[in-house]
Amino acid sequence: MKTTSPVGKSVPRIDARLKVTGEAKFVFDLEFPGMLVGRMLRSPHAHARIVKIDTSKAEKLPGVRAVVTAEDTPKIKFGSNEYFFPYTVDQLPLESEKVRYIGDEIAAVAAVDEETAEKALSLIDVTYEVLPAVFDPLEAMKPGAPAIHSAMNNIGVMLPVHFGNPDKGLKEADYVREDIFTLPSAAHCALEPHVSVGQYELATSRITLWTSTQAPFKIREAMAKTLRMAEADIRVIKLNVGGGFGGKLEMFPMDFAACLLSKKSGGLPVKITASRTEVFSFTRRKHPMIYKLKSGVKKDGTITAITGEVIADGGAYCSYGPTVIAAATMRLFMVYKIKNIRMFGSRVYTNNPVCGAIRGFGGVQSGFAIESHMDMLARGIGMDPVEFRLKNATDPDTLTVNKMILSSNGLKECIRKGAEVSGWKEKYGRKKDEGQDTARGIGLGIAADVMGSKMYKSHESAGTIIKVEEDGSVYLFTGAADTGQGSDTAMAQIAAQEMGIAYERIRVKAADTEITPFDTGSFASRVTFISGNATRNAARDAKRQVLDVVGRELKLDPVSLDIRDESVVEAATGKVLLSFDQAITLCSSFNYGQLIIGRGSYNPKTTPIDFRTGEGNISGSYGFEAQIAEVEVNKKTGRVRVLRMYDVHDIGYPINPVSVHGQIEGSIIMGIGYTFHENLRFRDGKVLNPNFSKYRIPRSMDRTTIESIFVETNDPQGPFGAKGMGEASLLPTAAAIANAIFDAVGVQIKDLPITPQKVLAALKSVRT
Q: Count of alpha carbons within 13 Å of 180, Cβ hemisphere only?
């Protein structure tokens, strides 16, 4: 059965059958003749100078084909926000002079099997001069602290935000309060670990890298720079990806090493697979933060001023530091009408493992702090939290004080709808003691998110090519990386809708830097909005070409024609003139010989953030949502049970409703994990719980009932009115739950994770 007009329908995912049958290929599944096993040598010290590296014993070991150190490289540093923030380019693929955290990569080997590779690592002799280390960001900022890089007081990224007169605003307030929130580190916990396969072609001096990635074009750029090669000589291919969540956005030293080892071993392919301990300890992680807020409000609920400070432990290298600190400090502008604000963000170098991008880019940490703080402000003036947010929430067609352009904005509708479906008025403030030991409560959190982010290149473009074959099959080439979120399916739906053909005709070829157009990558909830617009433009171009041929043949104005439901029709009357298959046969006939190749790109009108002021419109559109949690708290044990979550989301328009529901539910489950369980713990720079046996994430018995509801604002900039929404549902979850806990038992937990011990301690302090 053919699915025409697929946008807005819950069509089967393109990759569903391959994945449920186990036929889907991941990088780990790749096998090539002569493939070698690669392994990375990592520093055992958190901070040390490299005095000498002797690889001679490892090189002589039978079965070892190559050993590489920094001396085999051009010693060129890389970084993730290089275009706008060149000072953040601070990491070498293989360190040559100094290591800055336990796990820093200093050498790599390739051998015929795992045992030989591990033995070779043990034979590499490294002499270190151990240096003083610092693991606490507050200590790292003090004068005289060990210098990790050349940054003053170890502050790698600073973002001062100042608009209006916040001091005056605080004086004019009827109620002022201060709060400090502490947020832990967390791991991405993707099911698939990081895997890279590199192969150097001797005949062409070109490199192919197969890697589990969210951004193949960004990796190609970093590889070309650090290997001092032309981008045209490097091909990066993404296969199926078993989850990324921001953890597979960057080039990692293992990507670099796999390719360099292949070159040094005479062109043999080299596979490097990260162990689960390596993924937890040596890739990237969530930024721990200290979030300070001081705000004032009038008796009528008007926010008069917000001031505060964000201190983030960034670890040993910058990674996506500017983006994270910007997201942590700037999301306020999307959500609340603010005239007077002063915030200062600092991302601090420490000798801990590196922090980077993780779903929400700092918005999860700030979401907990801001939305908990807003509830406390509302309670301080005796105002219902729903009414408080409606009083202060941003509106459609708003230009914020920092120049963000909020065009479509369904935030207030989300809040009202959430209150309605959850029965807020009947439940809030009416503590229900279900028994002597338990009480129930309800809490609210709201959030906003970008649809892409102008922080990585001079543009935010994506491209799509659509090729129609003579038999009527349609191939869609996109650089967007489907990492499990279903973007290939969404692109196929958009193309089919625009071309007026069946969804089943579309074959998607994605994320291969040699054959697909450029795309920045899958992050910042950008793919549906930006890549989707590029796909729609390509489909429109392909359709135009078909209609031009039909118009010439039938002596009709092509503008008067359209393609609908697999047929070429008169646009005004809907009269069928010929089928799509007949039209394609005509295009490839003797008289025309027209090859249908549609091209499209899209670059949203955005401006980067000015890190001197906090001004900038980094996204072409913004998404909004309200989330409500119902909880039950056991006052004797301190255990909290989430009974139900309501998520009302301004999605613009759903391309594939079932995928949108899935994204929302996945985000909320991830948020519940961060609320109650997740805490990547360290001692002197070493991860103490680097595996799933010691690191807790939600399990099947932790599931709760989730009701997700769409608010359709039909964004004028989005493809068919759609917005991206992969991250926003994660942002307010922890705050909604914490606020519900207060409603139940009268205690506000301000540091995550919320453990039974913390709840009991808070209850005890209230009683005493």
A: 2
